Records
---
Amino acid sequence: MPEQPRARPLHAGARIRLHAGRAHLFPAVAVPEGMVAGQYSVLSPGTERRHLAGSDRDAGYMTLGQADSAWLLAPVPHGAAFDPQHHGAVIAPAGTGVEVAALARFQQMALLGLDRVPGVELDGAIVVGSGPVALGCVLELHRRGVTNVRVVTSRRHAPIGRAPGVTCVVPGTPVAARLVIDAAGDPRHAAALTEPGGVLGLLGTPEPTASLSAIEVHRAGWTVVGMHELAAQEAAAYRDAYSTAAAFLTERLPAELLPSWCRTVSGTRAPELYALLTGPGRPAEPVIVFDWRTA
């Protein structure tokens, strides 16, 4: 019987490997024919912390490459070359900067997740967390016309507080809302802030052991909504959501806000930044972009 042809790989040449709780840098390799070079990648702190505590693996899942003068962002490891036809790739509108393209990826998550939330007043919502997922969420709420969002965060002077309409409050502050969105992977904390009969949205990825009491949900009359970006999404709707977020940020985001939210560093610094993720020295900016062009 003749040998069956192998499926073309979706990516090659990951630059960061997690081993024994640490990030290790690997040298660049030649870009395979037909693939797009990974020029930048995006650090997702919550996901990366979980992966550091797990088994060995290539790190990352947001890498940017350029094709036909447009940025493609694919769910592949840090710095890897990838197939431009990758089923999960999205295309940034012409003129989108690298950092805006990265930030739009987090807003896309919130756009798709909020589309799943049943009819409820968005103004006055509470968002738990101040990382990139939370930032993408408040920006999407702003795009939808919301003018009042409370963000629960323990981080002093969190940059998310500069987003339009945002007021930061520390954990333990007596606040509650009809709509509470967990963007930190801590559903029990978010549930405690949800008013009876309200909506609890799970946007951040919870730990596998995280749980909510069914009797508590029952008695409070909450509607609990899983807001994972891939839940029942058509490919076209997924790509359109990214284009919408990127276009909004390009047109409406005040230029002076971007430096406080996004920082670009050489990919050679990746192991150093991974080492900071589990301690108090984590970078203040929610979105960290690795530059692989000369690394």
Note: The first helix runs from residue 45 to 52.
---
Amino acid sequence: MMKKRLTQAEEFDIMKLVLDKFLWLGMGIMAYGFWLMIATAKPIMQGLSITIAGAIVLVLFLIIIVKEYEVVK
């Protein structure tokens, strides 16, 4: 059985869909950490550590995207 090959445009469209989900996840984690710092009586460091964890998720995804998606000219 022959596997279907995606064009570069189709591959890029799929990558954009996945990228959107990871951006929402990272921003959601960061927003939750920021909310903990501002709106609750919990220590600032707890909210800050969750905010930093969200930033780490975004940076890790950036590294994966740069590593896996090569644009050949």
Note: The chain has a mean pLDDT of 84.
